[in-house]
Amino acid sequence: MIKTCDVAIIGAGPAGANAGIMAASQGCHTIIIDEQAMPGGQIWRAKSEAIKSAPMTPEIIDGDKLRVSIAESNLTHIANAKVWQIERELDEWVLHFIINGRSEKIGAKVLILATGAREYVQPTPGWTLPGVIGLAGATALMKRDLLTPGKRTVVSGTGPLVFFVASEIRRLGGEVAAIVTPNSRADWLRALPSMSYRTDLLRRGFVWVADLLLAGIPIFWRHAIKQIDGETKVHSVKVSKVSSDWSPKGPARLIEADSVCTGHGLQAASDASQLLGIDVKYQLELGGWVPEVEEDGITKINGLFICGDGAGIRGAAAAEIQGKLAGLSAAKSIRPEVNSSNSTLLNSYRRASRFGMAMTRLSIPRKGFQKLITQETIVCRCESLRRCDIENEIETGAATTNAVKSGSRAGMGPCGGKYCQSTIAKIIADRENQSEEKIAPPTPRPPLRPVSASALSGEFEYTDLQIPKPAPL
Amino acid sequence: MIRLIPNSANQIKRAEEICFKFDDQLIKAHKGETILVALMKNGIHHLRDAPTDGKPRGAFCCMGLCQECVVAVGGKLVESCETIATDGLIVQSLRH
Amino acid sequence: MTKTYDLAIVGGGIMGCSTALRLAEDGMKTIVLDQGDLGQGASGVNAGTLSLQIKRVKLMPYALKGHSEWEAMGEAVGFKKTGGFTLAFTEHEAELLYERQALKADAGAPITFVSNNALRAAEQNLSHKVLAASYCPEDGYANSSLTGQYYRIRLKENEVQFREKCNVKLITRNSSGFNLTTSCGTVHATRLLLAAGAWLKPIAADLGVDLPVRARVNTVSVTERMPPLISSIVGHATGLLTMKQKSNGAILIGGGWQGQGVPQDGRGNVTAKTLIPNLSLAQHVLPELSNARVTRSWVGFEANVPDFYPLAGALPGIENAFVLGCVRGGYTIGPYMGRLMGDYILGQEPELPLFDPGREFSEV
Question: Which structural domain range is residue B86 located in?
Fold first, then answer.
């Protein structure tokens, strides 16, 4: 018998958790499904069970607050569950998910997608070497496992995350070899006014940078990694200056390191939204392609709401508030007596968004940056396809991401294109002399995560399989 | 040297140790840790060879998306970044 | 002065493109229009199975010709002749297998029945619960993902014009032929071929012709790379499973389990209700598959008419308009049907008869 609730939420980060708490507080039977063992999302990721005690951090404090709120609410939290497919059956959403090696499902009158962000990492020669991880991946390792990415790490990329990662490496006893960022100090100065919204983060940012400077750790502003070298593991990194459009220029400088963290901003994880038929539009200031959704989470599909970074990268503070707004909208769609108009929330959402969007603006790669992707650089990691393979495919006439995917296999591997589709779109745009907003992302396909065939089928008897009648002879 | 960000590594208390096998190597891990974390702590980053060009690969996204860190457990491929290491577990790399 | 084409083809799948290539041989000026990318509909998302064992008896002569077409296309379309087994697990399925495969063998397919020992010698990883099996050495597969790339290259080589992302919004007739209003301008042509697969019905309706076209929503899934498990293509007596292991190790699973959706909405959906039994059946046939992870599932719209025979010939009541589609086993047979259709449009006698779109359709 399928369990049914009023509101189901996918994702227990700042947006999903707050949406859930809000919907539950309005009397809706609410279930939140999340991949992680504990609520918190990427930003407030909880420590693993292997950590018995450790010093508190602002992320843990905020995350614990959220976890307590969830525990105190009427919310049902399903942990360690991977949603692989979402379907509409009559007036109900059905969520199929893998938990404990089995496929289970729940039904819901209303669905809120709070699937968060994923990181864009621009390919660099050598970025497939063991020891190179995403900036976001580094934060996951450090928050959950208090593990540094290596002994001596080059931290590279755009926006604020490089400084957070570097300071966490230092806090956990690792060595930061250098920070390499194509942003300039002037970029940051320009962003300062929008940052006044989060003086707490601003203050922390100053401490991170001051600590690095006091420790004599080089910060290469307006620089980028040109190449990562090593045999079976990183041993050195070549960095070079970039111009104002982030094209590489000048000679390379060698830095020895055993690990690299690299990332170039976040993008809305919109696969689930797209699978359900939500259109995406290109909004550079929100990280690229984002689903069409209102500020209060309402979409064109009845009973479907989207909130948080999955609706466009506005950061955790905005995600929390939009989660509440979407929770209210969802509750109202079930219980019309709920008052969902809340101008205070809406105003604070807009203020928080301005901060988040300023950070996104700093993080977005500029036009010249993709010149760092040489012809031999792997673009699609799953299928080991290089930039030249992608360009050869475009040369045959493939002018869309779907056509390039079909012809070259780029994006057909196990990651489902999550780590190459944006780069491929950029390469197509470049070759076809089009703007990126003209190059739509490829059609996403289920399952949302790879799923074991045996988990899907479970135990079964052959004679119980409902095999349809054969086709006409 | 003045540190504004103190090194707090020695204030971390981890759970008791367990042991699992990675290819032919015995790996010590703290109970509750993922396979990936235990391997990285033991200096093992090279988890598989890419299927087409045979080049070494290791964990990349560390959150269950990129599939770069898959290893084989009981004949099935699992993301090492999301699979908890248990005592006596037998894990195989996808290195050739 | 706008150029007038000898023929405008609506639909850039296998049917449309292969017809265009045949016409190019005789110098006809053709343009192919597709609402998306070439070969991205059923032509590009089907499971790529080339099996005589799942072809309809009456279409067998066409399927045999189709196989030669694919063999000739070769590596460019990922063609592999692997041989194929069809398996039965129950008495009832065995009966079905014997009855159907015997008729197909009579129709010219080199199908034989094989013993369990022979089956096991050839494919040791298949289920040991097989009751009966047939084999066809001509069977194999091609890589349907390469359809678009293949025809793009071939059309260019043959100087056939094509427009992708070009949606035909309206077709009107005038004294000299047809005016096609599209999202990329107006196209004039003296003749018209509708080859829009599952989208045929609304386009023909534009010209006042009611084609009884419906669509099946076939599900296909693929696993991540696996160690070598099977070397032949494998099917099920009911036809509800096709399975092959590609050279990269990925296992492709089809069989026509129905997803949801209609072509008019632009896309269909995979549904757990049919995906799960499809994958369960595959695991029953190949137990090691239980170790695999499915990385992608999708559906494609396969057009058909009530009698499940092709529409191939003149569009009823409209002079100089033609229709080609609804070919069951269309991936296999499509390139050959295109050739026949081309002959017909050129006023030549096709090698094998076409299928009059104006016939009475009886439900099967």
Answer: 16-92
